[in-house]
Amino acid sequence: MSELLSKGRRLDGRGLMDIRDLVVEANVIEKAEGxxxxxxxxxELIAGVKVNLGTPFPDTxxxxxxxxxxxxxxxxxxxxEPGPPNEDTIELARVADRGVRESGMIDxxxxxxxxxxxxxAVFVDVxxxxxxxNLFDATSYGVVAAxxxxxxxxxxxxxxxxPVKTEETMSLPxxxxxxxxxxxxxxxxxxxxxxxxxxxxxxxxxxxxxDDRGNICAGQKGQAGTxxxxxxxxxxxxxxxxxxxxxxxxxxxxxxxx
Amino acid sequence: MGKQGGxxxxxxxxxxxxxxxxxxxxxxxxxxxxxxxKNADGSAFIQFGKNKIMAAVYGPKExxxxxxxxxxxxxxxCRYHMSPFSTEERKNPAPSRREIEISKVMRxxxxxxxxxxxxxxxxxxxxxxxxxxxxxxxxxxxxxxxxALADAGINxxxxxxxCAAGKVAGQVVMDVDDTEDKEGQADMPxxxxxxxxxxxxxxxxxxxxxxxxxxxxxxxxxxxxxVYQLQREALVGKYFGTNGKTEELSQ
Lengths: 258, 251
Prior knowledge:
The structure holds two protein chains of two kinds.
Chain A: H1 2-6, E1 22-26, E2 34-40, E3 43-54, E4 65-72, H2 87-103, E5 112-114, E6 118-130, H3 135-148, E7 151-157, E8 163-171, E9 179-186, E10 189-192, H4 196-201, E11 204-210, E12 215-222, H5 229-253
Helix pairs in contact in A: 2-3
Chain B: E1 30-34, E2 42-48, E3 51-62, E4 75-82, H1 97-110, E5 122-132, H2 137-151, E6 161-168, E7 171-174, H3 178-183, E8 186-193, E9 198-209, H4 210-240, E10 245-248
Parallel strand pairs in B: 4-5
Antiparallel strand pairs in B: 1-2, 1-10, 2-3, 3-5, 6-7, 6-8, 8-9
Helix pairs in contact in B: 1-2, 2-4
């Protein structure tokens, strides 16, 4: 593989900076307020959004709740096991959550019905159905597509100050669309969107999330290898360029549903 | 929670000083002691601002359960844990998802510096206990753990030195403290192997444009190099005099 990589080629014929085929399909789960099915090569998952009313955290009475979690289902790979999430899955969910939260994708201050008492609680759950590398990006795309297509019920505040559900719905208050781009370092080569066989031999992994205003808004290095300062700066500029392409592709995939 | 939206202008004064009086490019006071715990094979205590963190290393030792041993190298295991009294509100002592993630990235930040291949069929346990937390505890914990590993006599390619940079009140700052982390706009912890100039940990929470990203990254590296000096001095002190304490009260 390293011989191929030094020629700028990969096992599946891709160039170093090419992502695999990405298919994003929205509204696949009728009972969810928002949902998306993502295929990134053979990595496949469904993200679903459920929205209910909740009580805000005492230190943020003026903000709604937003929680992203992920689970690698036992059917997703011969190595996945049922039971409490392991550290890889916890990292995956926390990095996905970070991208959405830190980019300010959802304006959580607009999810408040009665300050300090009642807010929208938005739960995004990702069920990984097939594992073939780069769960970080696939999860990020699923979460973003599901949130973009989410329709939440509108509430009116009654005379007693209680929220009352109406028949009307609305979209979430979206401010930006964060896109995650993950790099693998194999030998001394950086490549994007590593597949399983590439992840198996990678020395280090770097995930960078960019928004549509030119900011990098979340990052995570993983694995027991190292990266040089130059590689990190190269990854930062590449993440933004690739991010723009992928953002446009996801938007095309869900157009007509937003 | 979230770094967007909040107004952090109170965090930097008109004179360009931060709440604790630091300049934007200044580290908090750092103090490292080596060999502070008797039972451990190696240990270190770091004070990094108000962070008080104990790191201990046990091993190389026999692996339990046995099947988790590797035939060609040692298994590195890390636990980052916060004491219930380390925070404003009591922290539930059960390991949180945050602590599990930090334990993982900490292990991955230390592993490149260790010659694990020198100790087949063994385990090396690294315990990092945050006794008081003050923002940047993972960086301080990694720096202390690396000193404890050296104190344990584990063969190493390099030390690992860690420091964060971030963005507060619209300005890039070195070494984000607790208040700045909560109210500021970005936090980027970085760990460096200083001799080989290789990055072993990089995380980012919050928004940075191109210029800010490069600046914060380069300041974090400067901070790592400063921490490296103190780690060296602490180790040299223990093994060649001054009984293993170094202190830096101001730069």
